[in-house]
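Worked example 2:
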Amino acid sequence: MSEQSSPPPEGPEAFRTPVSGVDDGAHRRIGPRPLDRPSVDPAQAAEFARPQGVTGAFTPPSQATNGSSSAQLAPPPPEALVSAFRRPDRGSELRLQRPPGEVPLGEQPAVEPVFWAADAERDPWRDPGTGAVLGPPADPATKSATGTDQSAPGGSGALLSVPELLFGRRVKPLALGALAGVALLLGVAGGLVGWGIAQLGNPLTSNVTLSEVEPGKERAPGSIAEITKRVERAVVQIEVRTGQTGGLGSGVVIDGAGYVLTNNHVVSAAAKDPAASLKVVFADGTKTEAKIVGRDARTDLAVIKVSVSNPTVVQLGKSSSLAVGDQVIAIGSPLGLSSSVTSGIVSALNRPFQAAGEGQDPPSTYDAIQTDAAINHGNSGGALLDSTGALVGINSAIASPQDTGSIGIGFAIPIDFARRIAESLIRDGQVHHADIGLNARSVSSTSTDGAQVQNVKQGGAADKAGIAEGDVIVKLGDRPIRNADELSVAVIERGIGETLPVQVVRQGRQMALQVTTQSD
């Protein structure tokens, strides 16, 4: 009867190998488990066993597997392979190769040395069944001088200084200061060297002291700069606002009481709208309200008044003393640019000019001074000065294709004519002009150029003088008449009640008549 085997141990005891059949409790090194070799099935052994007569791994070439002599076996291996890989002789020592000095397996002591301490009964590294538990650090000796554990989660140690943090704990403050001083000296030396190289490498730069600017040159009397300095404060900008719209123009102060001469078309919108705003802006930026004294649509002139003390007044000159080619200066606010100065010459004198009136105002007609000084929108009402700085004209209009701007053809109302209109407006607030009571149109033929009478007002000056419809007026007084504009200008420049000789062409014959002007 076979001996009944005890059940296999469980837990840590399964990893211990008793020595001599007795566990001495010293926790010896774990030994190998005993081998369990089951019995071999005879059928499988017969199937997978070596053939009869074969005793080793290498069979002679004359033998065949399973007793068959027809199979072609591989040639025998070389003698060197057989000698290297064959089984050792039965009488030789059977052991694995070990490092030099290692004790052979059969010579090991019966009792193995202790591998771990006796208090490692529940060591998780030795017992797979032990649960994972966070414990103290591996080295229990890491404690501070005060006895506190420096590696504990809640502990705090001494803070490091900047030298200790950057250079460790072996740097003296004196050495750190010396290092900083050396770095500063190196930086200064490098900057000086770089500056020197830069100065030597650029031949265009050098140390230089520029001479001081000399005082401004003396401007000769009569120069444009000198005239502008004297007169620009007498030229003002005029602003008109009516509802959401507005306009800009220029004007000239002609009297110390604050009277400003300008064009009618500059202030006509303010005259027709009681709610309109009319302001004057002086060269120094002072802005003040203005009132309309009077305006004359037929000559495109108007006078406004501002309440200011001691304004700069322009000196009035004589337009009759001008000659074609004389230098002139225009001052005004073209396109809203106040106190703008342009210069040119007199291009023509006594140029008959007629412009359409503003709104329902009649056309304006006058003998204009033509100039090539640049005049644009906003110059209207500004000053045209001669070479002495005296006012010789009021800038009024420009000729340009499709109203594109100045092309060097500007027109100004002569001051000799404008002075008479301004005096009448300041005195009476209105102006009456001479009239002969007819309408005419320009005609030109191979023999005659003049103004042909279209109709005659009954009871008027022309009717009383015997001028009939269809007559062509070729001369009024001492002025030749070449078109209807010249006739209008020749009449308006005369005084009321003045008797003038008139030459007309009637049915090819010239006739001399006398006409006495009437008030319009």
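The longest helix spans residues 173-201. The domain at 434-519 is CATH 2.30.42.10 (Pdz3 Domain).
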